[in-house]
Automatic annotation (TrEMBL):
Domain named GFO/IDH/MocA-like oxidoreductase: residues: 147-278
Species whose genome carries this gene: Christensenella minuta
SUPFAM superfamilies: Glyceraldehyde-3-phosphate dehydrogenase-like, C-terminal domain, NAD(P)-binding Rossmann-fold domains
Domain of life: Bacteria
Entry GO MF terms: nucleotide binding
InterPro entries listed in its UniProt record: Gfo/Idh/MocA-like_OxRdtase_N, Gfo/Idh/MocA_oxidoreduct, GFO_IDH_MocA-like_dom, NAD(P)-bd_dom_sf
Protein name per the record: Oxidoreductase, NAD-binding domain protein
Signal peptide range: none
Ranges that cross the membrane: none
Domain called Gfo/Idh/MocA-like oxidoreductase N-terminal: residue spans: 8-135
Length: 386
């Protein structure tokens, strides 16, 4: 089954609303041009789903009432989907992913993987038992310079990690929270839909994941302070976490969704024994490399001196900025390469394709649950229990 023979077929659960992240998933898959949207349960309301599906050009008989219905019906079709894309509120990731995997359908799911470590272990088991591929769309891993950082780190350019500082300030929740009432609050303020942590699960999971994706290091224990700042919130919107990695390195993560004046300022400083790497998502066409006793280097995405692992994903010449949609598209390109290879009967080592895996997702879920445990037990060290 080569790419030239046919496009892959995918369906979406959630992601219909014009403001949802589903738009970016669809645009990214369009950019790659190797997969077409053929079905979906785009909303919890069937009427809304029908309206949205029709706008996306999906046939009426492939717009479903629920993810269960979609998994059931698509598995029976000769032209059923090759993968399902899940971009619902967090609480539905687990049941939807499980339903598709049990029918042998590959899954691309937005983050965080699910709500609890128990759900995460069950999803890992289900993926193995049903031999399905699982891609977790942690956006920032898709930027070319994230892939450049991964290649540089893994080739030993900055040596073993000693410490890492990650900050992620945003202010998009300030106004929303102040206006929020019991009736108008969004799923992000409802623990049953969001999970035990809000900001720590939402943006903390990106922080843990980026460092894991680039270095391969896993968080062993955490000491967290989670707080709800300002009016109208029931869950955390500002946090500080000290982390210890399995190689002995330490780290400090600060995240906030009420940091006035900050848009989406995810920044990582990886400090190794020979040098350091700095990634700033708001300036994501450039990566800063500092080596001992050398002037600072600014690596420009797509330059001839870049690593093949990042050059592989160049879409536009350097100096013409790429962004969030391209980052999603790069993750999907890694994933659809694996889906095609699986269709060709090849044995797949998911980590080698360069997309965040279910194992990374499970680590993320353990990470943010350990942070909530730390907070609830008086800000003490908690092992992540991997
Ligand atoms: N990777 C990223 O950078 C990124 C960015 C934003 C959001 N996200 C993640 O994407 C997910 C969705 O977030 P969002 O901001 O798009 O939320 P949203 O509230 O804007 O959209 C959620 C969508 O899911 C639909 N939906 C709700 N319940 C459903 C159900 N049971 N079945 C089918 N559809 C259902 C809604 O109708 C809506 O279309 C979350 O898990 C979030 O963490 C990831």
């Amino acid at each position: 089954m080569t790419k030239k023979k046919r496009k892959l077929r995918y369906g979406m659960v959630g992601g219909g609303a014009p403001t949802s992240v589903g738009v970016i998933h669809r645009n990214a898959l369009c950019l790659n041009g190797d997969a077409e949207l053929v079905c979906g349960a785009f909303s919890h309301s069937f009427a809304t789903s029908q309206k949205e599906g029709a706008e996306f050009g999906v046939a009426a008989d492939r717009i479903y009432h629920s993810h269960e219905d979609m998994a059931e019906q698509e598995a029976k079709r000769a032209d059923g989907i090759d993968f399902a894309v899940i971009c619902t509120p967090n609480a539905y990731h687990y049941p939807a992913a499980k339903a598709f995997m049990e029918k042998g359908i590959n899954v691309a799911c937005d983050k965080p993987l699910c709500l609890t470590p128990q759900e995460a272990e069950d999803l890992k088991k289900t993926a193995q038992e049903n031999n399905v591929l699982f891609c977790l769309t942690h956006t920032f891993t898709g930027h070319l310079v994230s892939r450049e950082a991964r290649a540089l780190y893994r080739k030993g350019v900055i040596g073993e990690l000693r410490t890492v500082v990650v900050e992620y300030p945003q202010d998009w929740l300030v106004d929303a929270l102040e206006k929020e009432t019991e009736e108008t609050k969004t799923w992000r303020s409802v623990p049953a839909l969001s999970g035990r942590g809000a900001a720590i699960g939402d943006i903390g999971s990106h922080m843990e994941n980026w460092v894991h994706f680039v270095t391969g290091l896993r968080v062993k224990k955490v000491l967290a302070n989670l707080e709800a700042v300002g009016k109208g919130t029931m869950l955390d919107n500002n946090f500080q976490v000290i982390v210890k990695y399995d190689n002995g390195a330490s780290g400090f993560f600060w995240g906030s969704q009420v940091a006035i004046g900050y848009d989406n300022a995810f920044k990582v400083m990886l400090l190794g024994e020979k040098g350091s790497i700095e990634f700033w998502q708001e300036n994501n066409n450039y990566l800063i490399l500092r080596l001992r006793n050398q002037p600072m280097q600014v690596i420009s995405r797509g330059s001839s001196y870049c690593q093949p692992e990042s050059l592989k994903y160049v879409r536009t010449p350097k100096g013409h900025p790429e962004g969030l949609t391209e980052a999603f598209a790069n993750i999907y390109k890694s994933f659809t390469d694996a889906v095609y290879d699986k269709l060709d009967g090849k044995t797949i080592d998911e980590d080698s394709y360069g997309y965040p895996t279910i194992d990374m997702g499970a680590d993320g879920v353990r990470f943010f649950n350990a942070c909530v445990d730390s907070q609830e037990n008086g800000n003490i060290w908690i092992t992540t229990g991997k």
